Amino acid sequence: MALVELRHVRQTYGANEHPFVALDEVNFTMHEGEFVALLGATGCGKSTLLHIITGLQRPTEGEVLYRGVPLMGVNPHTTIVFQTFALFPWLTVQQNVEVALAARGVFPQLRAHRAMELLDKVGLDGFETAFPRELSGGMRQKVGFARALVVEPELLCLDEPFSALDVLSAESLRGELLELWLSRTMPTKAILLVTHNIEEAVLLTDRIVVMDREPGRVVTEFTVKLPHPRRRKDSKFLGIVDQVYATLAGQTQPEPIELGTAPGEAGRTRALPDIGISNLTGFIEHVYEAPHHQADIYQVAKDLKVDLDALLPLTEAAELLGFATIAQGDITLTPLGETFAEASILARKEIFASRIRRVPIFSWLLAMLKAADSHQLEKDVITAALELDFPPEEAARQVEVAINWGRYAELLAYDDDTATISLEGSALQAPPPP
Questions:
Q1: Is residue 258 part of a domain?
Q2: Which of the four, 4, 70, 303, 382, has the lowest number of CB atoms within 10 Å?
């Protein structure tokens, strides 16, 4: 019998006729003895799926089963370790761990015994009377692990628990978690890790479930059969990492699919990737320097020392603007991308301006401003209009990205005092493209 099973899970937000789809048709099964990673870029619904599995959130559609029984409410057999340490600063280390037991009605004497036992297992014996402010980030996260494990959960859920730590602390804590899991010294039957770090997933887990976004969905799975301890420089390790990168980067689609539709129209409205123009320029220049202006995406990530959440928006922006194509894990500059890399500062602005005019969401914004009195609108008005296609937080972010892109292209101006966006330069004369 499966430990956890999700059947046709769908999660939407918003009551309008075009609700935002966070998760769509997600099917997922997990058994005892598995250490599984949910892997994907920010916005693919990994954390939402974790909340559904633990019962903190009910899906809009679909069914969640735990040991074959439909889950109703919070799952008492699961616990979560979050990215932020979430400790009570006024409680000692031991008291922070005991809180989880107190919530379940465990007697005080037994609480103390079990808390000290777990603190010893995670290497915090001797720090039981310390307060969180006295601990390093890694030690504070150990307290979070101890608090989650002290209630002896069957399923331990980890929501990017290492991402807030420095590199050395994160590496140390990963090793200690793996030691506890492999030695079977903790009662947990399975571990589910949410992460956007591909190497972390390959280093720790037995199975990697890869998710894509817009909407969030499972696209494929990888079984990791490498023995422990795993070596990052091992050719088989690198091969799996490269395969996962290739899957997440995807393949450039025909232009109508790649660009999407304008807000309010039927079809998928493609969001503007949240990237800085200077970062995109540096990224294009880096690929331009590669032989034949083509590079392995995993190698680019290593060269630039960036993670998945930083790299994928850059590849998406390069695709969206027609500067590059992606296939089988490689990124290749188009002739336009090569021209952009070679161009002067002013020429790059002109190329960028001509390309963003073609992007439906930006074209829609130009049309809105063109039709408005004095060719300007309040920022909140545009944000509210975008909330028909995006959740409020994403709608606000899309407006910020559009402002930054439009300023760089000298098509938009923004007045922070009045919070208004207006047309500028060539956008005032040339009509937006159809």
A1: no
A2: 70
Distance CA 132, CA 89 (A): 6
Q: Is 221 helix (H, G, I), strand (E, B) or coil?
A: strand
Of 248, 268, 301, which residue sits at a domain end?
A: 248
Residues 197 and 305 in one domain: no
- pLDDT tens digits, residue range 36-65? 999 988 888 888 899 999 999 999 999 999
The model carries a pTM of 0.81
State both tokens at 426: 């060539």
| Encoded tokens for 220 | 């494929």
Q: Is 416 exposed, middle or buried (0-12, 13-18, 19+ CB in 10 A)?
A: exposed
**Within-domain flag for 401:** yes
**What would the pLDDT profile of 320-358 be if each residue is shown by its tens digit?**
999 999 988 899 999 999 999 999 999 999 999 999 998
**Token representation of residue 255:** 């232009």
Q: Pull the structure tokens for residue 213.
A: 């976004």
Q: Say yes or no: 371 and 312 in one domain.
A: no
DSSP assignment string, 243-273: HHHHHHH--PPPHHHHH---TTSSS--PPPP
The structure tokens 């990017």 sit at 160
Task: Specify whether the CB–CB gap between 329 and 249 falls below 8 A.
Answer: yes
What is the per-residue pLDDT for 432? 45
**Residue-level pLDDT at 392:** 85
The pLDDT assigned to 16 comes to: 63
Q: Contact, 215 vs 23, CB < 8 A?
A: yes
Residue 336 CA to residue 347 CA, distance in Å, equals 12
Separation between Cα atoms, residue 162 and residue 2, nearest integer Å: 28
pLDDT of residue 190: 93
Is 173 a domain residue?
yes
Range of the domain at 290: 280-352
Same domain? For 37 and 174 the reply is yes
Of how many residues is the chain composed? 434
Look at 258 and 148; give whichever has higher pLDDT: 148
Among the candidates 352, 383, 402, a domain finishes at 352
